[in-house]
Amino acid sequence: AQSVTQLGSHVSVSEGALVLLRCNYSSSVPPYLFWYVQYPNQGLQLLLKYTSAATLVKGINGFEAEFKKSETSFHLTKPSAHMSDAAEYFCAVTRNSGYSTLTFGKGTMLLVSP
Amino acid sequence: NAGVMQNPRHLVRRRGQEARLRCSPMKGHSHVYWYRQLPEEGLKFMVYLQKENIIDESGMPKERFSAEFPKEGPSILRIQQVVRGDSAAYFCASSPPGVPADNEQFFGPGTRLTVL
Lengths: 114, 116
Fold this sequence. Notes:
The complex is a heterodimer.
Chain A: E1 2-5, E2 10-14, E3 19-21, E4 24-27, E5 31-38, E6 44-50, E7 56-58, E8 64-68, E9 73-78, E10 87-95, E11 103-104, E12 108-113
Parallel strand pairs in A: 2-12
Antiparallel strand pairs in A: 1-4, 3-9, 5-6, 5-10, 7-8, 8-9, 10-11, 10-12
Chain B: E1 5-7, E2 10-13, E3 19-24, E4 31-37, E5 43-50, E6 53-56, E7 65-68, E8 75-79, E9 88-95, E10 106-107, E11 111-115
Parallel strand pairs in B: 2-11
Antiparallel strand pairs in B: 1-3, 3-8, 4-5, 4-9, 5-6, 7-8, 9-10, 9-11
């Protein structure tokens, strides 16, 4: 069984500040991990994914995430927030082999103030 | 290459009516997944289909909900005798042939169902 915990349903930052969105996972087998972004009234767009290659993964729009097995974490970061980053972010986990569905966290709403 | 298409984008039904949600996967994709998003919740898996086959429906409510992905045409999620608790956003995703775990799922814009 797999699960995802996203700490903080809302995160507020100022424009230009560091963005840190936390994700911890639980998985009995080696995982694949994903971050998706959802803008209002839209579907989910993949930001980045970890598939057991490099532990530091770079994604679109300047985001990156680091897989830390010892901490069972996959936190999402961006050095400098932009107003357009305001959206809801979802962390998801799946098994790294065969068939498995995506298990999502409850999401973190990122608010960016001028 | 068009993305995953869902229609309608918004659907309003009265209690007891039927709701039909359609999903056309990306061209070349043979795997379709349906998810439900309730307010303040993440997406919850409902069902995974390949052409003419239901692979995993472990997330589907046992009653009133059904899904199909026929040889021709879109995938359909059908909810019979809707109740207010069915109000949610329903998302479809598709992925290409091959090992599902290796492939990104591409999401459609969703259908927002409101039950009056």
